[in-house]
UniProtKB/TrEMBL annotation, chain B:
GO MF annotations in UniProt: pyruvate synthase activity; thiamine pyrophosphate binding
CDD domains named among the record's database cross-references: TPP_PFOR_porB_like
Residue ranges of domain Thiamine pyrophosphate enzyme TPP-binding in the record: 38-200
UniProt-listed Pfam families: TPP_enzyme_C
Enzyme class, UniProt record, top EC level: oxidoreductase
Protein EC: 1.2.7.1
PANTHER family: PYRUVATE SYNTHASE SUBUNIT PORB (PTHR42897:SF2)
Summary of subunit composition and partner proteins: Heterotetramer of one alpha, one beta, one delta and one gamma chain.
Keyword Transferase part of the UniProt annotation: no
Record keywords, A-Z: Oxidoreductase, Pyruvate
UniProt name for this protein: Pyruvate synthase subunit beta
Length: 404, 291
């Protein structure tokens, strides 16, 4: 797979990431937006509020709710009424939504929510890592991770297309790193309204609350049927794998921009070492790969765009010839001492004939900077693994010994 | 007339929750959308793959009915589909006064056009009769049992209608399943008023309160006749009607019929406790001008 960025220079403007996302939401024509402010998501909801105040999103209600719990609960009602819905949150707000997340996906309602990834308290910290969305991995939501603000905004349209697909009908999170993407100003193409009208048809469904055709939502399922509801959700996730690819391909066709499907690869074909990660760190990794390649080191990059559904087959193909895989995780399962990518990568390779070593690094917690030097040191460790095997399967990066 | 809540649900015989639901639908007709949070009504009417509901119905969670209802209302309006459709919450006391109070508060503050009906059976019935903020003083529940040093629930009932009135709701009323015509009149009235309206309905629960299934209505009436359950309407902050209590009955008559108050008649010191409950009834007479 190749990165293709034929972004039309004439169409580019310089805006903040949050504005780009809010603009993308606007041109996707939602009927109900419901959100609660929390740093660093605030700029998105402020921009949307301004669009509403200026009458720029017709037939759309913006609900100023009293909590994230109610923000998402309200959208349960709206989506069940057949409305296209949007929300945005992060960290504490996403944690507060936990119970509603399961409910939303279990009811098989579509929507898109931007997660502006941020660390969780305690200690309280408003900066970026991905512990918040990773902690919601089993809630039945599609999770897509964006590398830059062009992708984070374009992904909104793609996510609606996937989420509302009749074979999927699952809600989707579009994850973008807090501050690093939400507050950065960069040149980009604002999601084109005319193309989006073509790309994203209005949401139509027969499953809605309508007095003319009364249906019951949220039934009580006892042990004789509950399992099948879960099974069908898993089936929908399986189908979503292809839908993520299709949404990206169609997007490329129409808009000329492409970021990968469920994954994207960079110089992986002949790579001895493959770095695997999600989100804005990909930009740094690309530069490191370029540098190391110019020094003759065969390093490649595997970008995971879809964390749920997890792209097991695509990853297995991409890594099949490499000597070592390195997972870089901005999250950790405390008590296992592994980030989520490390765990998932190991699990999909087990029971296959691929038996290259996989090592992982916990990195960038609570907004800790990730300099290129840190990545180069990690690559050094990966080279040692090739030479002499694994010494540490998973470790924290750049620990400050003076604080421990 | 077609019943919009079908029989065949799994509620106890003479269940207060399903009776209130039936009366609500009789009053409003087909053009409504019902939201039920988790509780007896939800569990007993929606066992997959069946449903008792002949109107659109949704259950999401225990504590979010206010938010779900406001999302439905907002969506209907945004899509120009609201017309005369009524968005109606039928919720238990636990789902309203306790765990759901945040979301109902938000919904009323935002002024959505919804009818919120609290079915007050004065405890968490669905999970086995635990105490709620609506459990009356001195009632036993499984988490406020009477014992050697306890007469049951030591706290007064939370005054939810006053809280909803404080939100500026254009219409707040109390009602009871024992006077269904009065209840249905109030539901219709709530439906005719734009904005968030609230009806707090007394709902004697045969299982949770401990009385024979033939006594539901009698007990409901006694609550009104003893002045323990004042019936009133508040419109735009002003009390506009109260049901007068002629020949007020002593609270003992109400308490004696229910197992949840049995200890007041068997334990030493019970008389003084009954006197405290009588005082609550007497105060209601003064506050609402019931005589
Ligand atoms: C978050 C959460 N906490 C607790 C429960 C367990 N629960 C389900 S229904 C219920 C009580 C319902 O009481 P009420 O609202 O008064 O309705 P009733 O069953 O009495 O009609 C409880 C405690 C739950 N479902 N969700
Ligand atoms: S316990 Fe009470 S509220 Fe629950 S089904 Fe039985 S009668 Fe109805
Ligand atoms: Mg109750």
């Amino acid at each position: 797979m190749a990165i293709l960025r034929e972004a039309d220079k004439d169409k580019m403007t310089v805006v903040e990431g949050s504005y780009a996302v809010a603009h993308a939401v606007k041109v996707c024509r939602p009927h109900v937006i419901s959100a609660y402010p929390i740093t660093p998501q605030t700029h998105i909801v402020e921009e949307l509020s301004q669009f509403i105040a200026d009458g720029e999103i017709p037939n759309c209600a913006y609900m100023n709710v009293e909590s994230e719990f109610s923000a998402l609960s309200a959208l349960v009602g709206s989506a069940a009424t057949g409305a296209r819905c949007y929300s945005a949150t992060t960290s504490q707000g996403l944690a507060l939504m936990h119970e509603v997340l399961f409910n939303f996906s279990g009811l098989r309602l579509p929507m898109v929510m931007t997660i502006v990834n941020r660390a969780l308290s305690a200690p309280i910290n408003i900066w970026n890592d991905q512990q918040d969305s990773i902690s919601q991995r089993d809630t039945g939501w599609i999770q897509l991770y964006a590398e830059d603000i062009q992708e984070a905004s374009d992904m909104i349209a793609q996510a609606y297309k996937i989420s509302e697909d009749k074979d999927v009908l699952l809600p989707a999170m579009v994850c973008m790193d807090g501050f690093i993407l939400s507050h950065v100003y960069e040149p980009l193409v604002l999601l084109e309204e005319d193309l989006t009208n073509e790309y994203l048809k209005p949401y139509e469904t027969n499953y809605k609350l309508d007095p003319k055709n009364p249906l019951s939502f949220g039934a009580f399922a006892d042990p004789s049927s509950y399992t099948e509801f879960r099974y069908l959700q898993q089936q929908a996730m399986d189908k979503a794998i292809n839908k993520v690819e299709e949404a990206a391909d169609e997007f490329k066709e129409l808009y000329g921009r492409y970021y990968g499907g469920v994954i994207d690869t960079y110089m992986t074909e002949d790579a001895d070492i493959i770095l695997c990660a999600m989100g804005s760190i990909i930009g740094t990794l690309r530069d490191v790969v370029d540098n190391l390649r110019s020094n003759g080191k065969k390093v490649g990059l595997l970008k995971v765009r879809a964390f749920r559904p997890f792209p097991a087959e695509a990853i297995k193909q991409a890594v099949s010839n490499t000597s070592v895989i390195v997972a870089l995780d901005k999250n950790i399962s405390i008590g296992l001492n592994e980030g989520a990518l490390l765990t998932e990568l190991k699990s999909i390779l087990y029971n296959t004939n691929l038996n290259m070593p996989v090592i992982g690094f916990s990195i960038g917690h609570g907004g800790r900077d990730i300099p290129e030097k840190t990545i180069e040191d990690i690559v050094q460790k990966a080279e040692n693994v090739i030479k002499s095997g694994i010494s540490h399967e998973s470790e924290f990066v750049d620990l400050r010994e003076d604080l421990i | 007339m077609k019943e919009l809540l079908s029989p065949g649900h799994t509620a106890c015989p003479a269940c207060c929750d399903t009776m209130i639901a039936k009366f609500t639908l009789r009053a409003l007709g087909e053009d409504c959308i019902i939201i039920s949070p988790t509780g007896c009504l939800e569990v007993t009417t929606s066992a997959f793959p069946t449903s008792s509901w002949n109107v659109p119905w949704i259950h999401s969670l225990f504590e979010n009915a206010g938010a779900v209802a406001s999302g439905i209302e907002a969506a209907l309006k945004a899509m120009n589909k609201k017309e005369d459709t009524k968005v109606v919450v039928l919720a238990g006391d636990g789902g309203t006064l306790d765990i759901g109070i945040r979301s109902i508060s938000g919904a009323f503050e935002r002024g959505h056009d919804i009818i919120y009906i609290c079915i007050d059976n004065e405890a968490y019935m669905n999970t086995g009769v635990q105490r709620s903020g609506a459990t009356p003083f001195n009632a036993t529940t499984t988490t406020s049992p009477s014992g050697k040093v306890s007469f049951g629930n030591p706290l007064p009932k939370k005054n939810m209608p006053a809280i909803m009135n404080a939100h500026g709701a254009p219409y707040v009323a109390t009602a009871t399943l024992a006077y269904p015509k009065d209840f249905m009149k109030k539901v219709k009235k709530a439906g005719s008023i734009e904005g968030p309206t609230y009806i707090h309905a007394h709902a004697p629960c045969t299982t949770g309160w401990g009385f024979d299934t033939s006594k539901t209505v009698e007990i409901g009436k006694l609550a009104v006749q003893t002045a323990l359950w004042p019936l009133y309407e508040i419109e735009n902050g002003t009390i506009t009607s109260v049901k007068k209590v002629k020949n007020k009955k002593p609270v003992e008559e109400y308490l004696r019929m229910q197992k949840r108050f049995k200890h007041l008649f068997t334990k030493e010191g019970g008389e003084e406790e009954i006197a405290k409950i009588q005082k609550i009834a007497d105060e209601n007479i003064d506050i609402f001008g019931l005589q």
